[in-house]
Amino acid sequence: MKILKNQKGQAMVEFALILPILLLLVMGIAEFGMMFNSYLSVQNATREGARIGIVGATDLEIEERILNTSPSLRKERIAITIEPGNDGRISGETLRVLVNYDYQMVVPFISIIFGGSVNLSGESSMRIE
């Protein structure tokens, strides 16, 4: 019976050993969810930009649509490429819209492990009408 009395703090020690690993796992899942949300926003923005571009919108209108379609993304981290430009669009050819986004990680421990930022990119190609 004296052996059982000496184990009063065992659960607390085990919890203290497991807690950092558990927190890292939970915060990693949360970070991945936020990054995946940004990735889906980038994909949707490229699709919307290409959609209005094939019906005669200018490069400026395409860029504006991309920025308006992705309000959760920081505008200064978005890079937009549109090929061909305004003057090179011919009916029947392909319009290509590429969006790159520099995602900055939020969780400190995860950002230290993976370098702090991830480049997310999306591309949509549609035939010009």
What would your notes on this structure say?
By secondary structure, the protein is an alpha+beta fold. The chain has one domain: Pantoate--beta-alanine Ligase, Chain: A,domain 2 (2-Layer Sandwich). It is 51% helix and 22% strand. The protein is built from four helices and three strands. Strands 1-2-3 form a three-stranded antiparallel β-sheet, with helices on one face. Helix 2 runs antiparallel to helix 3. It is rod-shaped. The N and C termini lie far apart (85 Å). The mean pLDDT is 90.
Low-confidence stretches: none
Structural class by sheet pairing and helices: alpha+beta
Number of helices: 4
Mean pLDDT: 90
Q: Briefly, what CATH class?
A: Alpha Beta
Head-to-tail CA distance between termini? 85 Å
Order of helices and strands: HHHEEHE
What profile does the largest beta sheet have?
3 strands, antiparallel
- Helical residue percent band: 40-55%
CATH topology, anyone?
A: Pantoate--beta-alanine Ligase, Chain: A,domain 2
Number of domains: 1
Question: Measured on Cα atoms, how large is the radius of gyration?
Answer: 24 Å
If classified by CATH, what would the architecture be?
2-Layer Sandwich
The fraction of residues assigned to DSSP E strands is 15-25%
* Overall 3D shape: rod-shaped
Please give the order of strands in the largest beta sheet: 1-2-3
Number of strands: 3
